[in-house]
Amino acid sequence: MFCDFIISGAGLSGVLAAQLLKKLGFSYYIFDKSNGSRVDYRTSAISYESARFFETLGLWDAIAPSAVPILDIYTFQEKSASFLHFESGDADIDSPMSYVVPNLVLQDVLYRGIEINYAQAYEKIDYSHDRVRVNFQDDTIVEGRYMLVAEGRNSNTAGLLGFKMISAGYRQACVVCNLRSTGREHYNIAVELFLEGGPFALLPLSKKTDFSLIWTVKFPFAETLKNMDEQQFLGEVQKISGIEFKKVLTPRISYPLLLSFCISPRKGPVILIGDSFHAIHPVAGQGFNLAVYDLRDLYNVLNKYGLDAFDGLIDTYISKRRKSVLSMVAFTDFLVRSFSGKSVLMRCARGLVLDFIESNMKLKRFFVTRAAGKDL
């Protein structure tokens, strides 16, 4: 068979790509080597700009009832009185700067109407300047004008086709789960505390006493936290947050953190998107949003110029995305490396930085605008 786009990978980025192609009337073939099991208890921070793109695709109305607005963000560092307070009103937008959405809701909405070919592995991929050919193990052959690789970090296809990745490990892992307090409400406030081992964040969920925990720790401690008795685990969270929790609502999940970025995410008609193109630290909550911006910009180009003109515009599209991604890669990497560690001098310096930003409205507006996804 022949189609306009072949999509490799049926995670959130892959199916969102299928949704935008469907919206524009282009044919696509999306496949995934997995069997289709997609239970994901995590949450995603959805920026103002991402929400606007979902609205463009006609998806936001189904997501919105489960989207919890973040109205304020407080940032602290351990053993310091310095802090930052961001609020949506600091930026020139007419909505909250971001929302918290359960991934189960995103999956439910984004997968609607998308026919996915699961449990399908390929034998080989060949491409020329204007065609991609995928030979599958079941003897199916699919050809397309373009191929979008949305397999997530450590993409097999990116490796097979020789895409050069810049990678760095943080020697950290992230522990995530949802929690219920004994009565303390979140008031739509997100809190992030920079600790020696990494950032500790609590995000608001739909029930006023429910929180999403994203806790970055050093590798060995992640497994300890994951396997700890529930009450002991809740005690550890309370020590840091000062909030008394009574229940862990979802399984505790841990995964290693790394930085991965491809300088040249295009080879002929093959283009990397999402985490296959860029995987960043969750410190700023922008990982999935960057993938959405990849697809928003792709949608805008295809919608304005059409498929026949796309080949001449790919490099312009890639250049814009590279600039956006590089700025976020640099920012998140700087945060992680600057706000970790024991040094008293560094802690004092970080405190001065926090105080300076807190007192400077122009800088606060810049950071809130970035959190909302403007200019990314």
Automatic annotation (TrEMBL):
Positions of the FAD-binding domain: 4-331
GO annotation (BP), single: ubiquinone biosynthetic process
Highest taxon listed in the record's lineage: Bacteria
Uppermost EC category: oxidoreductase
GO molecular function: FAD binding; monooxygenase activity; oxidoreductase activity, acting on paired donors, with incorporation or reduction of molecular oxygen
The enzyme's E.C. designation: 1.14.13.-
SUPFAM superfamilies, alphabetized: FAD/NAD(P)-binding domain
Keyword annotations of the record: FAD, Flavoprotein, Monooxygenase, Oxidoreductase, Ubiquinone
Gene3D superfamilies, sorted: FAD/NAD(P)-binding domain
Pfam families per the UniProt record, alphabetical: FAD_binding_3
Pathway the protein takes part in: Cofactor biosynthesis; ubiquinone biosynthesis
Cofactor(s) required for function per UniProt: FAD
NCBIfam families linked to this entry: Ubi-OHases
Family: Belongs to the UbiH/COQ6 family.
Full protein name: Ubiquinone biosynthesis hydroxylase, UbiH/UbiF/VisC/COQ6 family protein
Organism listed in the record: Neorickettsia helminthoeca str. Oregon
Lineage: Bacteria, Pseudomonadati, Pseudomonadota, Alphaproteobacteria, Rickettsiales
